[in-house]
Amino acid sequence: MNRRGQHHYVRVCVTGTRVPVYTCYGETLFVGSFSFCTLFFNFCLFCTSTQQQRCTTYNNTPPILYRATEQGSDRETVRTTVGHLLKSRVRVSVVFHGSMHATFARQAIAHSRSTLGTQYQHVPKVELHRHLEGSVRLTTVLDEAIKHNISLPHGPLGEMTPASQLTLEGIRPHIQSLTPFPNLETLLNIFDYTQSTFHNIDVFHRIAKEAVLDAHEEGIRCLELRYAPCFASMPPNQHAFEDVLDAIEDGIDDAQLMLGGPDSIGVGLLCIGVGAMGTEAMDRTTDFYLQHQDKFVGFDMAGAETNVLEHLKCFQRVKDAGGKITCHASEDLDIGVPENALNAVKHLHAERIGHGIQIISDRQVMDVMRDRHIMLEVSVSSNWLTAGVASIEAHPARNLWTHGIPICPNTDDPGIMGIDLNHEWHLWRHTLGFSENDMTAMTLLALDKSFLPFDARERLHNMYFSDLAKQQDKERNNTFAASVAWANAHHQSQIV
Question: pTM (2 decimals)?
Answer without folding.
Answer: 0.80
